[in-house]
Amino acid sequence: MAPSSGPVTSAVTALTPVQVAVDDVHVRYRTPSSDTSAARDVPRPLRVVNRLIGRQANVAVRALAGVSLVARSGDAIGVVGLNGSGKSTLLRVIAGLERPIRGQVLARTQPVLLGVNAAMVPELTGQQNVRLGCLAMGMTPEQAAAAYRDIVELSGLGPQIHHPMKTYSSGMGARLKFAIAAAANPKILLIDEALATGDAAFRERSQDRMDRLRASAGCTFLVSHAAKTIEETCTRAVWLHKGHLVMEGDAYAVAQKYRWWAWNLAKGEDEKASSLLDDAFREGHDTAVRVTDLYDPTAPPRHVRAR
Ligand SMILES: Nc1ncnc2c1ncn2[C@@H]1O[C@H](COP(=O)(O)OP(=O)(O)OP(=O)(O)O)[C@@H](O)[C@H]1O
């Protein structure tokens, strides 16, 4: 694991090939709401009908509001932000699991999303889930069998690999999911909070695996609430707030700013927090990525776009 005393270094330059380009992505969900004032965008006749039949109106929730960023080979990009700021949505769009209402994502290869909620069958043993997971990622049964030993080793589960997954702690489950996703050797690996749930030994092994992936010209995205994890494991970071990209840049610098803002917020220093957020937005605006040259022949192919 990288020492906590300083930032993780990176040799990525503007000439390093782009692996992922997120271009002005907007995502909006529709969800039922019991808040009648929030349903203002619902036409009045429909509101009346809904009230009469006791149905809740669907309201729009803006999850991402025009996010743009670029990940190059060798980048490890941390994503920080408060609950509901759009971090998981960003990873889901990059993975192609969510379609934006505006904008697009370009990706050189299929990104693999490792989420703590990744589908696994709780009644099956770890061993059976490894096989299922490998097949679901597109491996042949022979490739799945060949990958098995490595996966078990990386997960550190030992004999518990033969127990049903529903008996695992959340950290053990997350470790197994990480190990399965890493076995696919994806060039673009998206990790949603998995590392935070593992113990120190597992964090070291998973960090080593991520470093190897970056060294083989891949890139990783890591969502974490812990700014310290981002500082220690990433080269760059993006800070999301209410679906907006506040700033992106060197992981250490962004995480420090985010941490200071979040600390002030938690202490009830609302004015100070608000001014720090404004400053960060302004600073971030100056360095914001604009994906303009989409016809560059060296750019990654289109992966997901709005209908
Ligand atoms: N399937 C969904 N339907 C409706 N709204 C959703 C859905 N998924 C996410 N949202 C909303 O979109 C916004 C962004 O959610 P998202 O899960 O991306 O945030 P997050 O930053 O990952 O949060 P957390 O840190 O709590 O995991 C939130 O307001 C959330 O309520």
UniProtKB/TrEMBL annotation:
Name recorded for this polypeptide: Teichoic acid transport system ATP-binding protein
Classification via SUPFAM superfamilies: P-loop containing nucleoside triphosphate hydrolases
Key words of the record: ATP-binding, Nucleotide-binding, Transport
Family: Belongs to the ABC transporter superfamily.
Residue ranges of domain ABC transporter in the record: 46-267
GO molecular function, a single term: ATP binding
One Pfam family it belongs to: ABC_tran
Keyword Transport recorded: yes
Stored SMART domains: AAA
InterPro entries: AAA+_ATPase (IPR003593), ABC_transporter-like_ATP-bd (IPR003439), ABC_transpr_TagH-like (IPR015860), Bact_Polysacc_Export_ATP-bd (IPR050683), P-loop_NTPase (IPR027417)
